[in-house]
Design a protein that fits this description.
This protein has five helices and two strands. It is an all-alpha fold. The chain has three domains: 41 residues, no CATH class; 83 residues, no CATH class; 42 residues, no CATH class. It is globular.
Length: 208
Amino acid sequence: MHVARKAAPSFEKVSQGESGAGTDRDLIYDLFLRYESWKAVFRAFDVMDAVLHIYREIQCNGYPGDPIHEVYIDEVQDFTQAELRLFIAVCSDKNALFLTGDTCQTIARGVGFRFEELTTMFKRLQQAQESAAPERSLPEFDRIKVPQFEKLTVNYRTHNGILGCASKIVDIILSLFPNAIDKLEKDRGHFDGPRPQLLTETSTECVH
């Protein structure tokens, strides 16, 4: 239950009610316990159970598959931290991971990805590694380093008219859910382009 707001924005309190008691975290944790009980009854498992099982097997017995020298992941915002941690475990070079994505484009349910959390995960792994063994005792490719975070702000796919409209939507998301996405510099294009036209009247009926 002791999870920082930024690490779990879905747990943020929406309202306290008249009594001021009870939080969204209490509700979510209660639903989690009921979900775990349901799985136990039906001997079911989900993706995170599978990820945890694989990770524990690797921790106990090592990775038995073909060597994986580098890992490249696109749309990284749709992965959980547990899944990303598994990639680190199976990659022979712990620093040969290339991850790209956009937190504004998350489509996976239940995933609240932020790049800051990814760098924090590497930082904690680095600290744990340094505590367990002196740095000189590890080969270079085994030493975990905090990855460099590059923010791409030049958009080659559209013009500033569209980008300006999109940035206003992102501003609304940040104002309503400040910990849900990374706060980055606004995208810019190579030319201004026409101002976008917004549809004020729409209909679900087919137009013949």
